[in-house]
Amino acid sequence: MNVLLQIDRLVKRFGGLVATDSACLDVREGELHALIGPNGAGKTTLIHQLSGALAPTEGRILFNGENVTGLPMHRRARRGLVRSYQITSIFKRLSVHENLAIAVQGREGRSLGMWKPATQDRARVEDAAAVAERVGLGNKLRSAAGELSHGEQRQLEVGLALALRPKLLLLDEPMAGMGPDESERMVDLLLGLRGTTTLLLVEHDMDAVFRIADRISTLVFGKVIASGTPDQIKTHPEVRKAYLGDEWEERAA
């Protein structure tokens, strides 16, 4: 399996604070790779660097064989490196369909003119509707985004990212604030993407992570201390000590 993303000795300093400490990590094409770790471990800071929102102090980010370390966020997105955020970011007054049509329009890098809505282009309309079906919102096309439940808004945000047709999608805590039913729908959505969209997922719901991830990396104090399959991570002594606790060894057994 080809390596799509490679993080090579990445360092991020904020004054005397080392938020990312020579982190090394690779994400293989087609896999669902989870990044876990305690609060304050530097997971979101790492995602910011991968997306281009923050510039690293040292190290390299290689994406699809290209060094993208110095590229701004929009140029990384054009190459297929796309992210979502912890805080839901959607156009709440617009419909689900309009939100997705705007995302499709952004992917194309062109507009229909200042006064013409994105939903007037037939191909764009059909593309947006297909994305809505993919994220489980096919029956909510005409609903205002602000009227959706929290879980549905998170599904829509994943849809906005998918509308850009990413080669690699960075998801930062997509299940944050969800109840059990909403989390289950998100798990199903992510499982449906496996094999067709490469994912790097930051998530604190360990039950979900161990169900859906192909590989898991653990970040502690900005350093990747272990990478492996879910079974390997559950029983890894350093990961248990730093994050999971002995409970996961007992559950694995």
Automatic annotation (TrEMBL):
One Gene Ontology term of the molecular function aspect = ATP binding
Report one GO cellular component.
plasma membrane
Q: Does the keyword Cell membrane apply?
A: yes
Q: Does the keyword Acetylation apply?
A: no
Mind telling me which PROSITE patterns this protein's record contains?
ABC_TRANSPORTER_2
Family annotation (Pfam families): ABC_tran, BCA_ABC_TP_C
InterPro entries recorded: AAA+_ATPase, ABC_AA/LPS_Transport, ABC_transporter-like_ATP-bd, BCA_ABC_TP_C, P-loop_NTPase
Q: Give UniProt keywords alphabetically.
A: ATP-binding, Cell inner membrane, Cell membrane, Membrane, Nucleotide-binding, Transport
- Residues covered by the ABC transporter domain: 5-246
**PANTHER family hit by this protein:** ABC TRANSPORTER ATP-BINDING PROTEIN, CONSERVED COMPONENT OF ABC TRANSPORTER FOR NATURAL AMINO ACIDS-RELATED
Q: What is this protein called?
A: ABC transporter ATP-binding protein
- The source organism is Cupriavidus necator (Alcaligenes eutrophus)
Lineage per the UniProt record: Bacteria, Pseudomonadati, Pseudomonadota, Betaproteobacteria, Burkholderiales
